Amino acid sequence: MLALGGFTVIELAGRLRASQQERLNVAAGAARHVVERELEGAVLVLSTLAGSLLLDDPRTNLQDFHSRAALAAEMLGTWVVLHDREPDRQLLDTRYPVGTSLPLAPPEKPARQAMETGRPAIAALGQGQEIVSVAVPIMREGRAIGALAAPLDMLRLVRLLEEQQKASPGLTLFVLDSSMRQIAATSMEPLLDQSAMAEVAAQGDRIARVLGPAGPVVVAFNHTEDGGWVVGAAELEASFVASWRDPAVRLLLIAGLVLLAGFVIVTWQARRLAQPLARLAAGEEREQGAARVQEFEELEGAVRSMQEALRREAANADRAAAANLQLAREAEDDRRLLSSVMHSMPDSVFVKDLALRYVLINEAGAAMIGRPIEEVIGRSDADLFPPAIAAEVSRVDRLVMDADLAREQEERIERLDGTETWFMSVKAPWRDSSGEMAGLIGVARDVTERKATERRLAKAEAAMRRIARADSMAAMSVGLAHELNQPLTAASNYLRAARRLAAGEAPDAARLDMAREAMAEAADQVIRAGAIIQRLRDFIGRGETERRRVDMGGMALESVTLARAARGPGAAAVPVVMDGRNHVVMGDLVQLQQVTVNLLRNALEATDAEPEPRVILRLSRAEGEVRLEVEDNGPGIPPDVMERLFEPFQSTKADGMGIGLSICRAIVEAHHGRLEALPADGGGTVMRVSLAEAP
């Protein structure tokens, strides 16, 4: 029992000590993550400023750049200094207005290091190391022309460490710069000796025992990714040892007491066992209350319960350390997952701030713009695209942020090489952790190939329409030859008669009057033939119609005037009924008027035999369409003719050519509309033209 108890206590002490070491490691790693995130934020803001086009010639754009730098400095809670490399001097300090005399001293160590290496630099300033400065180079054509520097708010860093310390009470979290000097800590009392700490920290991430002013200290060191800074968690060795030694000592005392109690009980039980034997040997009677086996069993159960309690305590400590380590790993995994998802997506993904400058973009987005990622970050669309395209993109971006709603938009971008790219973008507002508007997030997909396919299909459709029109004209030419034969033959006959009447040396006046009448009739027949040819010419020359906004109300009134004039003084009146609203479509005014006049002429001719002829023209709007209806009270259209009414050379009139309605329907369909023939209420016919309303 003594050996078993000692082994159990030693094993538990080892586990508790390992658990405390893991607690230090987890705390140091979590603090390092907080510090790296703060430094990366400062470097990201300064890098965005360094990419501004205003720094291409910083001396002439100081006023504009001062405004942007002051805004960025306000976000960081600090100030920004612009260093010029040649000569070595400060060009701008956001704490002072532009034009104020600034120190002529050369750049501080971080700014000088950034200009020499071409990479961001972070270092402490001053003898006391009370200020830490972050600097990034201003690169142009592969050369550093200056640097931007901003001191970090060390109180903010200390507050972040104190927030992290709440998860590990009793520990001191600290930050060392590249010179191994302490620049931030959660405790005002120095725990570590500067020289001893520098020697141990230089050996890499580890747990070490370091001598300090208050005595030995156990420290867990964690180096940042760039290897320049060290973030650590420290605890006095006395507290560290007490955290695992005191439970072990308590358990050892408990085990000793248990063993002592067991020794007493065993001694007592041995005497109780010996007494019955002695009495038996002496021939005495057995004493009441002799020892039983159950008491030994109860002692064994007590020992096992103590061992199980020790195991449970050690297991709980292991689970707590594993949970802290898992939280730190999950935070790092989330950051890497976001970056991996962004750059692996085939579509363009980007983030813009309130000034519509790019603060984040993936490789697909930079390729779509036609520039490297580093040339896009920090710039606006006005810096990257032609003015017209940049203005349109910015207008849509402002609409998304003002309306605070997601928006889908088809946009066009013209590359630097002159080629154009079409893409479908979805943009939505971007809000920060406090719920304030911070900019917008967008995803864009390249649809250039789809647009090219649509254009090819449109060209093919136009070609098919031309072929169909040519086929229609081939069919109509046969009928028109017959129509033209009649007036031309009549004109020829009239001219021959006039020549005979005018023959002779002295024809009388009556013969001359008859000759004049014959020539007049011939002229009328020639005019009729010309009208037929003109109608064919108008249809052939229609081609691709020139689409403009057409007021159907004004066109209808003018068409009624033309149709009644063609009928002569005795033509019936045609009232025009409109619903009082604008009736505007996109189309060719001349062609739409040709259709309206033709429908009115047919309606007037259909009512010639009616005792009370009635023709009405109506204009209305319904379901996004403008409808023009010509209604008459004529005899109507027989059902057998209705089926082939719009076919060429189909007519209900004895002298009709049968191509008027065919041409009208072709014109209406060329305007993407419909021409229908419907029976009118009470008898007659309604010819309806339906066209899409103009936007």
Please write out the topology:
Blueprint: H1 2-50, H2 62-76, E1 81-84, E2 89-93, H3 109-117, E3 121-125, E4 131-140, E5 143-152, H4 154-165, E6 172-176, E7 182-185, H5 194-201, E8 206-212, E9 215-223, E10 230-236, H6 237-282, H7 294-344, E11 348-353, E12 358-361, H8 363-369, H9 373-376, H10 381-384, H11 387-403, E13 407-414, E14 420-431, E15 437-446, H12 448-501, H13 509-540, E16 548-551, H14 552-567, E17 576-578, E18 584-587, H15 589-606, E19 615-622, E20 625-632, H16 639-642, H17 660-670, E21 674-679, E22 685-692
Parallel strand pairs: 17-19
Antiparallel strand pairs: 1-2, 1-5, 3-4, 4-5, 6-7, 6-10, 8-9, 9-10, 11-12, 11-15, 13-14, 14-15, 16-18, 19-20, 20-22, 21-22
Helix pairs in contact: 1-2, 1-4, 1-6, 1-7, 6-7, 12-13, 14-15, 15-17
Please give the CATH class of the domain at 548-692.
Answer: Alpha Beta
The poorly predicted ranges are none
What is the overall pLDDT average? 76
Measured distance between first and last alpha carbons:
97 Å
Structure description:
The protein is an alpha+beta fold. It has helices at 2-50, 62-76, 109-117, 154-165, 194-201, 237-282, 294-344, 363-369, 373-376, 381-384, 387-403, 448-501, 509-540, 552-567, 589-606, 639-642, 660-670, and strands spanning 81-84, 89-93, 121-125, 131-140, 143-152, 172-176, 182-185, 206-212, 215-223, 230-236, 348-353, 358-361, 407-414, 420-431, 437-446, 548-551, 576-578, 584-587, 615-622, 625-632, 674-679, 685-692. Helix 1 packs parallel to helix 7 (294-344), helix 12 (448-501) runs antiparallel to helix 13 (509-540) and helix 14 (552-567) packs across helix 15. The longest helix is centred in the last third of the chain and has 54 residues, at 448-501. The mean pLDDT is 76.
